[in-house]
Automatic annotation (TrEMBL):
Keywords in alphabetical order: Methyltransferase, Porphyrin biosynthesis, S-adenosyl-L-methionine, Transferase
The Tetrapyrrole methylase domain, residue ranges: 37-249
The protein's name in its UniProt record: uroporphyrinogen-III C-methyltransferase
Keyword Acetylation: no
Lineage of the organism: Eukaryota, Viridiplantae, Streptophyta, Embryophyta, Tracheophyta
InterPro entries referenced in this protein's UniProt entry, alphabetically: 4pyrrol_Mease, 4pyrrol_Methylase_sf, 4pyrrole_Mease_sub1, 4pyrrole_Mease_sub2, CobA/CysG_C, Siro_Cobalamin_biosynth, Uropor_MeTrfase_CS
Gene Ontology molecular function terms on file: uroporphyrin-III C-methyltransferase activity
Broadest EC class assigned to this enzyme: transferase
Source domain of life: Eukaryota
């Protein structure tokens, strides 16, 4: 395809020739079926949170397409003969369109390659893994998903925040803070998202947090609800802000947190040993449970 870099064109040619030779050069290479495509979750950042299966697949790949949130430590696991291609996206800039990513996965799979799509967190939690899987399956390519620890689980564990806790939070909700066309309003905040007995975890919500916080409080969530914002959680660069909901946006601005930052809102945040706004509140919550 036209979007391929020269070195990737060469790799694609080598793979196709290798496949042809293995089958006697008679064009029968296609009869053995396509290669393998793996959607691999790399977790929230700490490479030690990778699964054993993820490590094995990463080391055995021919081509790896990786996102912005995949750490250098994870990329260091890649085999010496493999090729890496960055396909990450940031607000306002996509190194590759989603359609180009689809075509890259398809082209190399059809050439018989072992293709790994590396995604931060879990590939099926706000990772567009479902779209890639659906596209490839429609083209007759079998896709294997290797789950990763999603940021909500990994980062909350790092801070000692139980996402659910008897008598404090009986449910947890993950949602994206992404807005339409880069605006300041989150895509969707249902009235029942302001449930005081639930924990809210917001992915990609830095820019829309001021609006989100106002909407949650408008729908009845207490302005004093404990909350936390965590930049680059589980990595050596982790920075954390604890605050009551009404002050969270301001404290994030003061600390100059940047993406990726995860936001956790709910009474369970006060159970963290790092919560220093109200130790008495944390104690009372535990006793009440």
């Amino acid at each position: 395809m036209a979007a391929l870099l020269p070195e990737l064109k060469n790799l694609l040619y080598v793979l196709r020739e290798k496949r042809r030779r293995q089958h006697g050069g008679d064009g029968g290479g296609d009869q053995c079926g396509p290669g393998n495509v793996y959607l691999v979750g790399t977790g929230p950042g700490d490479p030690e949170l990778l699964t054993l299966k993820a490590v094995r697949v990463i080391k055995g790949a021919d081509l790896l397409l990786y996102d912005r949130l995949v750490s250098h430590e994870v990329l260091d696991l890649v085999g010496p003969d493999a090729r890496l291609l960055y396909v990450g996206k940031t607000a306002g800039y996509h190194s590759r369109t989603q359609e180009e990513i689809h075509e890259l996965l398809l082209n190399f799979a059809e050439a018989g390659a072992t293709v790994v799509r590396l995604k931060g967190g879990d590939p099926l939690v706000f990772g567009r893994g479902g779209e890639e899987m659906d596209f490839l399956q429609q083209q007759g390519i079998h896709v294997k998903v290797i789950p990763g620890i999603t940021a909500a689980s990994g980062i909350s564990a790092e801070l000692g925040i139980p996402l659910t806790h008897r008598g404090v939070a009986n449910s947890v909700r993950f949602f994206t803070g992404h807005s339409r066309k880069g605006g300041t309003d989150p895509l969707f905040v249902a009235e029942n998202a302001a449930d005081p007995d639930s924990t809210l975890v917001v992915y990609m919500g830095l820019s829309t947090l001021p609006s989100l916080a106002q909407k949650l409080m408008h729908h009845g969530l207490s302005a004093d609800t404990p909350a936390a914002a965590i930049e680059r959680g589980t990595t050596p660069q982790q920075r954390t802000v604890f605050s009551e909901l009404k002050d969270l946006a301001g404290k994030i601005a003061e600390a100059e947190l940047v993406s990726p930052t995860l936001i956790i809102i709910g009474k369970v945040v006060a159970l963290s040993p790092f919560w220093d706004c109200s130790v008495e509140e944390a104690t009372s919550l535990v006793e009440a449970s």
